């Protein structure tokens, strides 16, 4: 049971970092479909720089810088050059995925996995499966920081004047303007914060145990994270819950494989995605009946 | 209204010293947008402690006026002074910092926030971090102190319209507003909430603020204001006057622009009107010159020989946020007849046009040339001869980003059941028709958005006034056009009617209606409230539109029925 929880958290950790990045962008009125690309860039840069310098923290820092730089480019494209944010976001995903693969081949001359000499620190490397410590065994420090980060995010978005400003910009830009704020500048700040969070998620995916990078290792997690933002009704705790839910469905899939359940493997592999669709459909249905929750979709207009 | 006298004892000394910097003065203010003059040489001084009403029809310059006063626009000429010092223009924030705040007609609070969050967000003494309980306690206290009955932990999107308005007022009061402007505050209010709001507005003035209220309903003006200033087409036609010294009749006359005694020539109004007045006179002449066939057509239909072109019975629509809903409207347009529809904008004209065209759900019957079309779609109705010149010619009338020929071809495409298009034929037809209608364009492939307003309207006429047109709905067909184009459009409509077709002319320009129409129907609050001959004087039409008259019965009676339609569903 405790190791099942560890499996859940291992999957949910990177997802939540990325989803929190998507959340702050969403609340500022940006549909961030570039999450997948930025996550891939974060994963690649963290591994590449860790290989180059031997220091995992420099790797993490470089990943954050690269992702923030691309986020600023994203902002320029949508806020200054008025590009369609869906198209530009998808373009950013394509660019990020391709850039990571291209640089991997250009620098390391391999299409296989590249291995980092070190990974993010792991507090509890191993624990007896009957001990509660097994819940966090093998998890990187960044996963363990998540409760604090999520709480900080909640305070920032829901209990600070900056949060009101972000909400106003995303909800009703006219209000932000008439209170004297520039919606576009607010979005830039949100996207910079978002870029940093996404990069940590990507770095955790690569350096949180596997300590390697390979092509397509994000495997759609960026999109799942975006789904978590919608599913969680753009509320911090809702998003965290959605990420844990996705973690559980992945963990069930893994457990099913390990236990050798008598069901086709394809079904087991598809399970997390099927559950996602079902959950999002239910959430949308509930939201429509309460006229709350997903209201963000209708209200985030410019 | 003796509001100031009553309130004076509360803060006699301080009020006096503060008062000076609460005086808002406009000196020779003009506002131009290109060739269009929205405000012309406005001089007015608003003192604190009083409610000042600014009234006028739509397009009279009221919105421009409030934007100049709140510093959103920098006037082209003249200046705005607050307490003797010039107001720095630039932004709402800047104006708010100087003490001028506006309660918008369209609310400015983010729907997903709670009231407390909204108030905190707009407050100048914002804290970086807060606890929800602290926020609620703080703002609940201030809201209670101001005497509002609001639970500040509720979300904006769950509030009723009057409650949202209250939030806006609290927001303005929690700053250091010295001058508060209400932009048509009753426009979207349910009638039963209007009195409370007007009482609130009077209280603000009693507290020594300078209160300016932009209104267009006379009953409300007389219920709330101490002074009234009338704008008509950017010009002050009635300089600020104490409400005790005017009657509703006089104000109505100034709003409509008929300043002389009833029955005087339409040409002798203020200078800015001359252009239009001449054009109307031209249209008038064109119409009256050819009036004979139309006059003959009507008795014929009266004998029941010919069926009406349009026969609408009991037409009702559901509420919509953009316009009043229709209540059981009956309307007949006979062959050869132009029926004018008058009314203050927002009283059901849009609902009427959309219901007739078939893009708004409606109940009741619509007979077009004897055929019941109320169950038919837009295209089928067109096949029965319905044509429309829509309100927004550049948005609804043409596709600005499509070529001129495509915009014209749409008319034929909608008429013919063919699936495949013969492009060369359509282009040739477009060239022929556009030339015949005198549209000046560079080439058939030019985008319609590049044409001038007059040419866009000619393009629409060329498309809509084809040989199969039976009923043309012309919604504000001459608005914003130059003199020549106005005369052309009016002449075209008159000719169409003279060929035995019907025209439903919706206009806010009463001179135009009087010049062109055979009968004038007045819509108010989505109801057919009056039907007048074109010889009716402006004052009479205006009274039917505004629902105010001698001031005896109007103040209480109309408010119950007038605005219900504008409520949100």
From TrEMBL, chain A:
<feature type="transmembrane region" description="Helical">
    <location>
        <begin position="33"/>
        <end position="51"/>
    </location>
</feature>
<feature type="transmembrane region" description="Helical">
    <location>
        <begin position="222"/>
        <end position="255"/>
    </location>
</feature>
<keyword id="KW-0472">Membrane</keyword>
<protein>
    <submittedName>
        <fullName>ABC transporter permease</fullName>
    </submittedName>
</protein>
<dbReference type="Pfam" id="PF02653">
    <property type="entry name" value="BPD_transp_2"/>
</dbReference>
<feature type="transmembrane region" description="Helical">
    <location>
        <begin position="85"/>
        <end position="107"/>
    </location>
</feature>
<keyword id="KW-1133">Transmembrane helix</keyword>
<feature type="transmembrane region" description="Helical">
    <location>
        <begin position="267"/>
        <end position="287"/>
    </location>
</feature>
<dbReference type="GO" id="GO:0005886">
    <property type="term" value="C:plasma membrane"/>
</dbReference>
<feature type="transmembrane region" description="Helical">
    <location>
        <begin position="188"/>
        <end position="210"/>
    </location>
</feature>
<dbReference type="GO" id="GO:0022857">
    <property type="term" value="F:transmembrane transporter activity"/>
</dbReference>
<keyword id="KW-0812">Transmembrane</keyword>
<dbReference type="InterPro" id="IPR001851">
    <property type="entry name" value="ABC_transp_permease"/>
</dbReference>
<feature type="transmembrane region" description="Helical">
    <location>
        <begin position="133"/>
        <end position="157"/>
    </location>
</feature>
<feature type="transmembrane region" description="Helical">
    <location>
        <begin position="6"/>
        <end position="26"/>
    </location>
</feature>
<feature type="transmembrane region" description="Helical">
    <location>
        <begin position="57"/>
        <end position="78"/>
    </location>
</feature>
<keyword id="KW-1003">Cell membrane</keyword>
């Amino acid at each position: 049971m405790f190791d099942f929880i560890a499996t859940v958290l291992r999957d949910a950790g990177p997802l939540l970092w990325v989803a929190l990045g998507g959340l702050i962008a969403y609340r500022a009125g940006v549909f961030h479909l570039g999450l997948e690309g930025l996550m891939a860039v974060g994963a690649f840069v963290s591994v590449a720089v860790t290989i180059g310098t031997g220091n995992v923290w420099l790797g993490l820092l470089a990943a954050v810088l690269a992702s923030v730089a691309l986020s600023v480019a994203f902002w320029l494209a949508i806020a200054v050059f008025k590009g369609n944010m869906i198209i530009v976001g998808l373009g950013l995903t394509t660019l990020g995925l391709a850039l990571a693969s291209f640089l991997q081949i250009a620098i390391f001359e391999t299409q296989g996995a590249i291995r980092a000499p070190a990974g993010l620190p792991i507090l509890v490397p191993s624990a007896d499966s009957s001990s509660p410590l097994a819940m966090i065994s093998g998890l990187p420090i960044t996963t363990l920081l998540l409760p604090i980060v999520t709480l900080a995010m909640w305070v920032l978005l829901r209990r600070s004047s900056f949060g009101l400003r972000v909400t106003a910009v995303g909800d009703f830009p006219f209000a932000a303007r008439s209170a004297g704020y520039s919606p576009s500048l607010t979005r830039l700040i949100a996207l910079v914060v978002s870029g940093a969070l996404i990069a940590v998620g990507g770095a955790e995916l690569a350096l949180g145990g596997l300590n390697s990078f390979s092509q397509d290792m994000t495997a759609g997690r960026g999109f799942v994270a975006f789904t978590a933002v919608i599913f969680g009704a753009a509320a911090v705790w809702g998003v965290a819950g959605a990420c844990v839910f996705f973690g559980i469905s992945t963990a069930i899939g893994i457990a099913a494989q390990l236990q050798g359940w008598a069901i086709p493997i394809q079904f087991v592999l598809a399970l997390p995605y099927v559950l996602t669709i079902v959950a999002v459909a239910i959430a949308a249905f509930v939201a429509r009946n309460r006229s709350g929750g997903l209201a963000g979709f209708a209200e985030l207009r410019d | 209204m003796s509001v100031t006298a009553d309130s004076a004892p509360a803060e006699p000394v301080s009020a006096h010293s503060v008062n000076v910097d609460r005086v808002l003065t406009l000196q020779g203010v003009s506002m131009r947008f290109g060739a269009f003059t929205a405000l012309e040489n406005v001089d007015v001084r608003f003192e604190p402690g009083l409610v000042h009403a600014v009234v006028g029809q739509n397009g009279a310059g009221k919105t421009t006026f409030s934007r100049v006063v709140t510093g959103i626009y920098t006037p082209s000429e003249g200046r705005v002074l607050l307490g003797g010092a010039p107001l720095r223009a630039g932004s709402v924030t800047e104006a708010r910092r100087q003490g001028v705040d506006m309660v918008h007609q369209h609310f400015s609070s983010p729907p997903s926030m709670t009231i407390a969050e909204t108030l905190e967000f707009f407050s100048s003494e914002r804290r970086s971090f807060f606890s929800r309980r602290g926020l609620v306690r703080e703002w609940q206290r201030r809201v209670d102190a101001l005497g509002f009955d609001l639970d500040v932990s509720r979300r904006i999107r769950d509030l009723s319209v009057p409650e949202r308005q209250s939030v806006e007022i609290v927001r303005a009061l929690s700053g250091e507003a010295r001058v508060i402007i209400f932009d048509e505050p009753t426009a979207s209010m349910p009638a039963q909430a209007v009195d409370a709001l007007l009482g609130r507005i009077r209280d603000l003035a009693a507290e020594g603020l300078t209160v300016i209220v932009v209104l267009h309903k006379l009953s409300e003006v007389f219920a709330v204001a101490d002074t009234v200033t009338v704008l008509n087409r950017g010009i002050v036609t009635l300089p600020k006057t104490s409400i005790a010294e005017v009657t509703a009749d006089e104000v109505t006359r100034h709003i409509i622009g008929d300043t002389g005694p009833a029955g005087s020539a339409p040409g002798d109004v203020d200078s800015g009107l001359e252009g239009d007045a001449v054009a109307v006179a031209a249209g008038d002449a064109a119409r009256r010159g050819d009036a004979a066939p139309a006059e003959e057509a009507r008795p014929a239909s009266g004998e029941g020989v010919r069926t009406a072109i349009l026969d609408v019975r009991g037409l009702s629509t559901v509420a919509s946020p953009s316009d009043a809903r229709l209540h059981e409207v009956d309307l007949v347009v006979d062959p050869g007849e132009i029926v004018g529809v008058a009314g203050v904008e927002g009283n059901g004209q849009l609902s009427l046009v959309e219901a007739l065209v078939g893009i708004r759900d409606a109940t009741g019957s619509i007979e077009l040339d004897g055929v019941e079309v109320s169950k038919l779609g837009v295209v089928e109705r067109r096949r029965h001869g319905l044509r429309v010149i829509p309100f927004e010619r550049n948005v609804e009338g043409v596709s600005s980003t499509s070529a001129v020929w495509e915009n014209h071809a749409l008319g034929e495409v909608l008429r013919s059941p063919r699936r495949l298009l013969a492009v060369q034929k359509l282009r040739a037809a477009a060239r022929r028709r556009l030339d015949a209608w005198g549209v000046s364009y560079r080439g058939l492939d030019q985008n319609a958005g590049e044409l001038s307003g007059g040419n866009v309207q000619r393009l629409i006429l060329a498309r809509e006034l084809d040989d199969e047109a039976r009923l043309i709905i012309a919604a504000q067909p001459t608005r914003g056009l130059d003199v020549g184009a106005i005369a052309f459009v009016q002449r075209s409509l008159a000719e169409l009617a003279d060929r035995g077709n019907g025209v439903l002319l919706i206009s806010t320009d009463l001179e135009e209606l009087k010049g062109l129409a055979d009968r004038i129907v007045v819509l108010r609050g989505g109801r057919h409230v009056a039907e007048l001959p074109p010889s009716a004087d402006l004052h009479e039409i205006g009274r039917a539109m505004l629902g105010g008259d001698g001031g005896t019965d109007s103040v209480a009676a109309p408010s119950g029925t007038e605005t219900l339609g504008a409520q949100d569903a």
